[in-house]
Write a structure and sequence with these properties.
Rossmann fold; binds adenosine-5'-diphosphate; binds magnesium ion; nucleotide-binding; 10 helices; ATP-binding; 21% strand
Amino acid sequence: MIPGKGFFITGTGTEVGKTVVTAALALAMRDQGLRVGVMKPVQSGGEWAAPETDGMRLKTWLDLSESMDEIVCYHFPEPVAPGLAAEWAGVEIQHEVILLRLEQLAARVDVVLVEGAGGWLVPLGADWTIADLAALIGWPVVIVAHPLLGTVNHTALTALAIRERGCTPAGVIFNGLREGERDQSAAHNRRLVEQVAKVPVWGSLPWLSGELTRHRLKQAACEHLDMDGIVGFLKGGKADE
Ligand SMILES: Nc1ncnc2c1ncn2[C@@H]1O[C@H](COP(=O)(O)OP(=O)(O)O)[C@@H](O)[C@H]1O
Ligand SMILES: [Mg+2]
């Protein structure tokens, strides 16, 4: 396990909002006086350092002094699972490289948020997945999930797989609820996820139309997420103190 405190951020799938939630969480944690680092160990899709890549969005939203090389360990231009993109590029993703960089980052800050890629079982190579990387890091896992019909099953399956890999699913964050698209399940999903997945739901970040600014992301997290619970979990829930 990497010493230090942090969360591994996974999702019930790709495009569910991991990068947006990671940025919003980091900004709200900073608001509580914490030094927060972020890492996107493996990203695929887009040119290196293009503004729409996860690493660059995190760097810009959080105004990070770290270079892209410190935030992103492996980048592949093809928008496919990192394991496949790496295969096409003839590159082997090495966990030692990621763990070393993460250890260095964790030593400089109070909290690190590590954004996975896609969902929990996305391949990173022929014989390993995001789940294996998260298990090596050993930090509690946050599940980002969509807020509508289907989310109970997706979230509970993800929580089950996280436990099966020996990790702790710490909390669920719903993301992207558009008021006009609320379905009949929306009001009940929090309770049902907590019942079935047995993971606390830390809130539901609404869909923010218009430009996603630093201020709006932070405000949304402070208003809609249980930031005291999240920070309290980190402060009280780690065995390495
Ligand atoms: N709460 C939100 N409000 C507005 N746009 C969002 C929100 N969550 C996600 N998005 C947008 O949806 C897309 C997917 O989100 P992203 O965070 O990149 O997902 P992931 O990291 O899980 O692939 C991005 O274009 C992002 O800007
Ligand atoms: Mg992302």
